[in-house]
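Quick log. Single chain, no ligands specified.
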Amino acid sequence: MSPGPQGAEEFLPLSDAETRAVSGPRGRHAALIEDAFSVQLETPGGGVRLSGPAKARVQARRAVQSLSQRVASGAEVGESDVRAAITLARAGEEGAAAHLAAALPVGRRGAVTPKTAAQALYLDLLAHHELTFGIGPAGTGKTFLAVAYGASLLMRGEVDRMVITRPAVEAGERLGFLPGDLTEKVDPYMAPIWEALSDLMGPEPLRRRRDRGEIEVAPLAFMRGRTLSHAFVIVDEAQNATRLQMKMVLTRLGEGARMVVTGDPSQVDLVNPRDSGLAHAVSILTGVKGVAMARFEATDVVRHPLVERIVRAYDADAAQRDRG
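-> predicted structure:
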């Protein structure tokens, strides 16, 4: 197919591995780039040919180069990485530089980099505040980036330990009804956290740090009466913490400690949703020195593209109910 009357073409030489990553399984990555910038992307061998208007080719070229650099660094490339590359390309050189500056050199498969502008801001807030709230829908990377940031601090020796906690409320289930001892009860419930840590650090390094007490994952109730010093603390699924629980955990901060609180106010599993401590804490702590608020929207979802559409459908339904 020849480019349109306003189009031209250019060829970007790439290695075979880089070319395969840009094309993607059954050409899915190339299709995402084509749709995003209204260009034609072909892989005739030895690289990528871009056809289309000059401005569109500039942005598409940035996306392709971002993916090729990721491959050259030894990292894998998935659809979420392609969408991130598209976002960076649209942000321009300054926006791309801001995203790269926020990269965390902690991932086993390459540095962890923000995939949206909201994620880049989130990492920046984590770096400059003692207490950060990450608020928004599922799939926006709130918990994974918090875990990655905490792991990077731990591996650089900037904190002595990571403490990750969740309220023991999950769609009406209670830990006491699960079989086994405390560890057996807690570990399946905290599975998303362990999976993120294992992916970031590797199973064996994670096991060693866990055995040494450098990484602790526990229900929120186990934080009562403690002072958490020189630690990075993550309070996950905070929408299911009551107001009293939220006050309790926020006041556990000790010397040299930092905390991030993540949650989705639209997914409260408490018997009385109005008792959720997350929305209450956000309302009274906004503007307090040392406290930052990072807010995510449906457009920041970085899971399967369908997740964003699901979130939007539920948001629309909630808005209609409020109007009714």
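The chain has a mean pLDDT of 84.
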